[in-house]
Amino acid sequence: MLHTPSSTRNTLSTKSDERGMALLLVVVCSTLFMLLGLSLTFSSMTDFRTSTEFEAREKALLIADGGFNLTQAIFRGNSLTTLLANATDVNQYLNFPVPTGTTELGYFNRNPLSPVEAMHIDYASPPAPIGTRTIHGLLTPPEGVPMGAGRYFARVTDNDDGDGDPLVDSDDVVILRVMGVHRGAATEGSVYGTHIQNAIATIETTLKRDTTLAFDEAFTIYGPNVDITYNGNSFDLDGRHHDLAGNLIPGTPKPGLGLMNHNPGGGNAAVSAASAFTMLAGMQMDNLVGANGDFGPLPSLMDTTNDVLASSDLDAANIFDPNWLMSFVNQLAAFANNNLPGGTYNNVTWGTTASPEITFIDGDARLGGNGSGAGLMVVRGTLDYNGAFTYVGLVFVLGGDMQMSGANKNLIGGTFAAYIIDNGDGTYDYGIPEIRFNGNSNFLYSAQAISLATDLLPMRVLNWRESTRELEPY
Q: d(Cα 411, Cα 396) in Å, to the nearest integer?
């Protein structure tokens, strides 16, 4: 029998061990590299998914922002109360949860649609609805407005203005929410057994309508004094309430003629009021009717400066600053329906009560013929109001000279006259206006007509924020 030397056996055993160790190392390394590869793959997939979801959400935010810019145009010419009370029946597709403790003014009820439903439903091809629900203040169609690869939904709701009615506006402040919906390629997970398909973003803004021009008298004059003349006995400054057609309606009377001048040390507009009263002849006293004035029941003539100072409406005091007024007036020119130079205008029509307009005349103007208009008219110069011209809304004359002459003329709403002096250095002052009441001139106070004008003004953004799940869970 042959015997293998022990040294040979040891060598073979060592080589076998080395091969086993090498194989183990190969297996371990292969496993490590496989795990590293899987890790890199998962990391890459996560990064891709995260970036895709972020991109989809940013697109949804851009859609919401674009929808906000387009929606603001809806407010012009519309009563805020009308928009709040507008009821729309919309399809409901999911039994989404409603957060507990919400009220009509709560965050969930400000949304144009449920965020859960917005994430799950393809509104371009929706499923069969399970029912309907009524939404007040919806400013877009129930299926939204397409924009790019998505669509937006908008809704206006009331702020807590103290009137206890979410469908009635009492302070010219409302809240607008716009939800942008973008169909994303990646999903965010699973909610209520359904994969999220859409990226959504919601922005909320608080909007206010400027009420500086919402005067409470038939005719308002601003200045340290007034040069006023009343000719004849056919004019009327009537502070009682009238409708858009000039018919008397119930309501607490306002002054027929109001004088303003913010000068506490000098008695405010006491000097102007005295001048306006002194120029009245005995037979003309009853041509100024409305609220009791500073000189008795008739004429209805008073210094209304303190009324503005005591007003809860912070916008009202803006009228005291001629620099603010001119800045505001210059902005009106940018979106006026009729942007005109000074001149003579006969037999024109500048808006109707059904479709009011902003008319801006940059210079001295003369109106003649049987013209008419409705909305807001601003004259940066003087105004010779001639012929039988009827206007419903607000008339602003800033050139210091306004005279009425000719046939029947009706201004239903409110009229403001002042003399704005350009100091030549970018600042302005109030001077002494000159007013001539001639012929058959009728100035009839109408809160309805004034609202017709102020509703044309753009809304001012008081604040802007994005609503997120962290702020408002859903």
A: 12
Helices (H), ranges, 76-147: 80-85, 115-120
- Smallest CA-to-CA distance from 230 within 273, 293, 279 is with 279
Enumerate the β-bridge partners of residue 237.
288, 443
The 10s digit of each residue's pLDDT in 362-403 is 999 998 888 899 999 999 999 988 878 889 999 999 998 888
Q: Are 334 and 356 in contact (CB under 8 A)?
A: no
Q: Which residues neighbour 129 within 8 Å (Cβ) at sequence distance 6 or greater?
A: 91, 92, 93
Q: Where are the beta strands (DSSP E) in 16-123?
A: 87-92
Peptide bond between residue 299 and the one before it cis (omega within 30 degrees of 0) = yes
Distance CA 299, CA 296 (A): 7
Collect all residues with Cβ–Cβ distance below 8 Å to 37 and sequence separation of at least 6: none
Q: Say yes or no to pLDDT of 227 above 80.
A: yes
Residues comprising the chain, all counted: 474
CA dist 111 and 420 (Å) reads: 45
Contact yes or no for 65/204 (Cβ under 8 A)? no
Helix (H, G, I), strand (E, B) or coil at 230: strand
Among candidates 324, 322, 308, 334, which has minimal Cα distance to 457? Answer: 334
Indicate the burial class of 339 (C-beta count within 10 angstroms; 0-12, 13-18, 19 or more). middle
368 SS3 class: strand
Q: pLDDT of 151-210, one tens digit each?
A: 999 999 998 888 888 999 988 999 999 999 987 654 444 443 445 578 889 999 999 998
How far apart (Å, rounded) are the C-alpha atoms in residues 358 and 406? 25
Q: Compute φ and ψ for 110, nearest 5 degrees.
A: -90, -15
Distance CA 366, CA 292 (A): 33
